[in-house]
Amino acid sequence: MLITHLGDSKNGAYINGNKRAALNIFTGEVLQKDDLVTPLKIGDILKNLPAPTTDKMINDWSEDDVTTSTAYLSWEAYEGADSYRVDIFKKITGAEGLEFLYADTRIAESNSITLTGLTANTRYAVMVTALDSEGEELAIYDYCNLQTPLEDSDDVTDPTTEDPDDDDDVKTGYSNSNVLNAIMTFIAAGALIVLLTYKKKAV
Question: What is the number of other CB atoms lying within 10 angstroms of the CB of residue 1?
């Protein structure tokens, strides 16, 4: 479904004329209400995100708050809010420029959340919506941008690196240095025997 219109959210956000659901993308379960239609589904693309309806903000995050697969976010609490819907979008470059690929929805019981299951080296837009006890939208916060870092190269296994625990990689026998030492010891012992034999005959 291509999103063509995002309506006024004073009485709840509307998408293509239908009220928006708080949806668990993975199970298809409506988290807050069961009478909503045409919720966003994974893979839907938005040209623009809804305009904020509150001056309250998502707090600035630091590099320590974001890993290759997680992100910790917090925001100013909204008076009367019972929970918050957190919509996650991947920022992509479409034919007409920047677009928002709908990725997931989470529900936060307080004004913070740790997002998991993110993809490394990916740009995201995260939008928070305050909900009342009935799941009705109270306010939409302005979205924030974040980017997950590249995978740590130290975590990537080099296929050319030998595993010492792998029986196929364990080498048997002597190393070159051990063989050389053995030969030298043998020669020295032989020379000693020859010397002692010569002295004995001389006596």
Answer: 13
pLDDT tens figures, 10-26: 333 434 333 444 444 34
For residues 37-75, b (16+ Cβ closer than 10 Å) or e, as one string?
Answer: eebbeeebebeebbebbeebebeebeeeebeeeebebbb
Nearest C-alpha neighbor of 146 from the set 165, 173, 159, 127? 127
Residues ≥6 apart with Cβ < 8 Å to 118: 68, 69, 70, 71, 124, 148
Q: What pTM does this model have?
A: 0.58
Which CATH superfamily includes the segment(s) 14-155?
Answer: Immunoglobulins (2.60.40.10)
Q: Where are the domains of the chain?
A: 14-155, 167-202
Q: Tens digits of per-residue pLDDT, 61-116? A: 999 999 999 999 999 999 999 999 999 999 999 888 899 999 999 999 999 999 99
Q: For the purposes of burial, counting CB atoms within 10 Å of the CB of 20, is it exposed (0-12), middle (13-18) or buried (19 or more)?
A: buried
